[in-house]
Design goal:
The complex is a heterodimer of chains A (393) and B (146). Chain A is of the alpha/beta class and 393 residues long. Chain A contains 14 helices and 12 strands. Chain A has a 7-stranded mixed β-sheet, with helices on both faces. Chain A has a 3-stranded antiparallel β-sheet with strand order 9-10-12. In chain A, strands 1-11 form a two-stranded parallel ribbon. In chain B, helix 2 packs across helix 5 and helix 4 packs across helix 5. Chain B is globular and about 45 Å long. The chains are: A alpha/beta (393), B alpha+beta (146).
Chain lengths: 393, 146
Amino acid sequence: MRKYIYMDNAATTKVRKEVLDEMLPYFSDNYGNPSSIYELGSTSRVAVEKAREQVAKVLNAEKNEIFFTAGGSESDNWAIKGVALRNKEKGNHIITSKIEHHAVLHTCQYLEKHGFEVTYLDVDEYGLIDLEELKAAITDNTILITIMYANNEIGTIQPIEEIGKIAKENNIIFHTDAVQAIGSIKIDVKAMNIDLLSLSAHKIYGPKGVGALYIKKGLRLDNLIEGGAQERNRRAGTENVQGIVGLGKAIELAYENLDEKNEKIIYLRDRLMNKIEENLDYIRLNGHRTKRLPGNVNYSFEFIEGESILLSLDMEGIAASSGSACTSGSLDPSHVLLAIGLPHGIAHGSLRLSLGIYNTEEEVDYVVGKLVEIVDRLRNMSPLFNERKTGVK
Amino acid sequence: MMYSEKVMEHFKNPRNVGELEDASGVGQVGNAKCGDIMKMFLKIEDGIIEDVKFQTFGCGSAIASSSIATELIKGKTVDEAMSLTNRAVVEALDGLPPVKVHCSVLAEQAIKAALLDYSKKSGIKIEGLDDFDFEEDDHHGELENY
């Protein structure tokens, strides 16, 4: 079989064998509905509650503060719409950032159409928000601060603890989309004053279509999904038992030997970054050099366009991703790259390589070798590079 | 894969990449903001496109569109090159995804821009160029001054 190198772990991950093994019985033998009172039902219920405990444990949360959802997007929607609707008598102002995931941004835009006001905080060239700007944005009407833990495209990690402190001092609810941070960063919702936290299973070697929302005890928010009495009347729908079991196992494994695992991934990341920087000119690292997710590498390569880099990598059996417009079908490149100040032309030439637990040093070296060839080839085809080279416009 | 085999083949092995030192006409369309720039170099003798080269900044379909466009006009007359449409480029590529059709428009326009340059430099009038609107593809077809 042809060599296949997967370096798009920020997009999704492979389900781990150990996770799949835990899930399998709940597709067939243990198919009971957790709401049923007979034995088959209670087997499922026990499994769901075990997973709830597994998720709570890694967040330093209580078991009854964890609510299962259909994934990160639902968790974000629930947290933001739920808080907004519940608190609309108190205020109508929400603070977020310009580099949030679309699950947050589009939800905020939806609320704007329904009378809410949203402040989208700028970020600096590394993708960090300014805490003073956050403080200055707070008004008597502010009911929610929602800032992502770590960015999916450029890997920048926000000062979550400080944001939590500011939110608490001002008595404002704080939600964080931690979909990318989960499994890579130790999170303590209590110490960090996090009121709501979104997470997803498929980024941490679990199944797609399942996630959770942490809701701090006592915090009230409107329901997003109405129906049956599941999840203590707060999230209706028969539980995705096998998915929830997978999430529980995946999150437990993600936090086993976390330091050791991160050490290995950071070593690979730094090797990848160093080699790219040693071998290629006219490049720009996107994101922060140290306040960065262990597996995230994101560069812009001047004079060339991201989709053609991706296609070329794909022909070599390498899976990666880009913030170029051409990969999304829209005319504008990634909102994150524009927010950190990249001109359109440079943003079109971005490439994200995201590393995971299955990547190896050999793969990193292979990818750099191919990438250098590809960038050279595309640059030699580019009128922009040729103008730059000759100085003739 | 969203692209036809033909597109991938031209992306992988683009024909006529480069520049012509002694070009009779050079045309560049598109801009970096949109993510595509195409530059065409034509060597024209006795009304025949003797040689053609291109340089492209852009996605896979932009590179494939320029490549196949050069093949379609090489050895042809100026009039034949003038009559190359973006539709012909799309057909020659066995289709392009709808969001990528503008790449074929750019290829057509890059050739016309090069022919216009040739016409200006040589003083040879080319039928149909006077009223050619390089901005018909509002966002993507901007003619840049060369």
